[in-house]
């Protein structure tokens, strides 16, 4: 897979528009990708939305009890969800990232049953490393690090990545972004 998520089965459910055609119906876009665009999910609701037992279609159809009004309103705005999902998918494609959801074979087994698992991962590199019990290291830190912090992050991450260890991070600016650049 040369560029991100070119395989249709990673993007769409069933037949439909090509992976580069975002004009399809929202029911064709992977429900996990739609769910990932929902804003306003504070700590009280996250365990429900990130549960390993989650059926994202149930959440998107409003069949989950106890959702805050603001989250329900966001879920009911399908046009905005689809638009936000299309923007996220386009950006991932443009940057060469694969989009990996819990239903994908590449989704890390260590996360599959974890409470509060991420519903979407953006990954670049050898995706098979996500599937195995391969060594991995999460690097997170300040969004406003010092120059020394950035240099140390770059040196440390590059050295760790050279050992074949997969680097995981949340894509925030600062230390997280520096870690990602250093390992690629």
Give the topology, please.
Layout: H1 8-11, H2 31-36, H3 46-49, H4 56-60, H5 69-76, H6 78-95, E1 98-100, H7 109-112, E2 121-123, H8 128-131, E3 136-138, H9 147-162, E4 166-168, H10 175-183
Parallel strand pairs: 3-4
Antiparallel strand pairs: 1-2
Helix pairs in contact: 9-10
Question: How is this structure best described in words?
Answer:
- With 184 residues, the chain is mainly α.
- The chain is built from ten helices and four strands, in the order H-H-H-H-H-H-E-H-E-H-E-H-E-H.
- Strands 1-2 form a two-stranded antiparallel sheet.
- Helix 9 links the parallel strand 3 (136-138) and strand 4 (166-168).
- Helix 9 runs parallel beside helix 10 (175-183).
- Mean pLDDT is 75; it is low at 1-27.
Task: Give a nutshell description of this structure.
42% of the residues lie in helices and 7% in strands. By secondary structure, the protein is mainly alpha-helical.
Number of strands: 4
β-sheet strand percentage: 5-15%
Number of helices: 10
Shape: globular
Q: Mean of the pLDDT scores?
A: 75
- SSE order, one letter for each helix or strand: HHHHHHEHEHEHEH
């Amino acid at each position: 897979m040369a560029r991100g998520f070119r395989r249709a089965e990673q993007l769409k459910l069933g037949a439909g528009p090509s992976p580069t055609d975002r004009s399809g119906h929202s029911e064709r876009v992977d429900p996990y990708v739609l769910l990932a665009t929902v804003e306003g999910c504070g700590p009280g609701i996250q365990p429900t939305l990130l549960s390993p037992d989650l059926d994202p279609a149930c959440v998107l159809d409003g069949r989950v009890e106890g959702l805050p009004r603001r989250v329900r309103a966001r879920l009911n705005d399908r046009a905005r969800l689809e638009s936000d999902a299309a923007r996220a998918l386009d950006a991932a494609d443009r940057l060469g990232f694969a989009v990996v959801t819990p239903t994908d074979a590449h989704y890390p087994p260590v996360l599959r049953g974890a409470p509060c698992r991420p519903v979407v991962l953006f990954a670049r590199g050898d995706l098979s490393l996500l599937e195995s019990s391969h060594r991995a290291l999460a690097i997170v830190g300040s969004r406003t690090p010092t120059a020394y912090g950035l240099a140390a992050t770059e040196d440390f991450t590059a050295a760790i990545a050279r050992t074949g260890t997969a680097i995981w991070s949340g894509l925030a600016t600062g230390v997280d972004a520096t870690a990602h650049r250093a390992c690629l």
